[in-house]
Specification:
heterodimer, A: 278 residues, alpha/beta, seven-stranded mixed sheet, 14 strands, B: 131 residues, alpha+beta, Beta-Lactamase, six-stranded antiparallel sheet, 34% strand, binds zinc ion
Chain lengths: 278, 131
Amino acid sequence: MRVTVWGCRGSLPSPGPEKNLFGGNTSCVQVMHNNTCIVLDGGSGIQRLGATLHQDIKEVHILLTHLHLDHTMGLGFFLPLYNPSVKIHIWGPAAIEESLLRRLRRYFSPPLFPVRLNELPLHPIIHEIDNSEFMIDDIKIQSGYICHPGPTLGYRLSFGNAKFAYMPDHEIGLGAANFPNEPDWTSGYEIARDVDLLFHDAQYRPSEYVDKVGWGHSSIDDTLAFAKMCKVKKLELFHHDPGHTDIQLQSILHEVMLNKQLDFEVSMCAEGNVYDIS
Amino acid sequence: MPQQPIEIILSRQLADCMKVAVFLVDPAGNLLFYNEAAEGILGIRFSETGSVPVEEWASVFKPTDIHGNHLPPEGLPLVQTLSNRKPAQGSFYIDNRRGKRILITVTAFPIEGRPDTYLGAMALFWKTELS
Ligand SMILES: [Zn+2]
Ligand SMILES: [Zn+2]
């Protein structure tokens, strides 16, 4: 599986010269395996992905973690949606009352967006999922609800022994009892356990999180403890706060890693990064 | 052990910070968690017992009438909720681990998660003053 990052910023696109290194586009990650194209979230990063997608690809699966704007705002600008020869599937979390299609239509309608879903040349195929397990070609997908306001899924993608987990918005501080000592009482554990690569919410410094409990995001030290508990091989800190510049992100990573002995790799995720998991 | 559903984890978190005594059970009736206030009433500690399988409940507390006669489980609010997935309420006595007989009032309700999943039940209980 080849994983490409098209956006790893949290909450709001925030481009600018002081953010060139880690990028300003919001959540969008592409996973390719042969001709299978899976796109995790439709944040602003999906626009560039759509503009450069290889013309041989005739089917795209967009897996939405949830419907917050920073994960959906790019959908209408994803060019393959306007190409009748490309079949688009949109997978996303079931809610209690309103269907996924109805919730998506709120975005694809005025005044938020001029084009309605049924005005597209080919209506996307909508799949509502919850704690689910299914295949997209050769890739096994497991989804599970995790702790974040509104119905929100984490995803685990595997092919053979290669495993990748994606949880851009996840507040471990609220979603775990007796953390980090009881994996079975920790939100997201089944999604992330033993993966080769984990992309995980790390929006706040520990000191910033104190004032933002309940907003749905994690403090970096909780994310490190979670990755350790899940025995991941590599952790990419994801969903960077829109206010954090490149210099700040580098110094935050330096601060939290000081005097820590970890048996897995940790980096700040950057737009444009590519990972091969095999 | 498999990971608990997020709804159950968050229920435990809520129970953990509430002053009222709380029981959290899975659909089979296994006692997954009880909080500090429940520890006080039952005379046991969660850190010592951990979760309690349904068949061992009887060793945790004995529901009785005022005379100490054992009550059949079907009449207990939490057992009703587990069998019909509806809220239930009632009062009865328990003989706790310390040998004390306490009158408690219980409100039990089912925990149903997204999109439509039955995950267990929560019971809140209060010590009731004898009049
Ligand atoms: Zn987000
Ligand atoms: Zn969100």
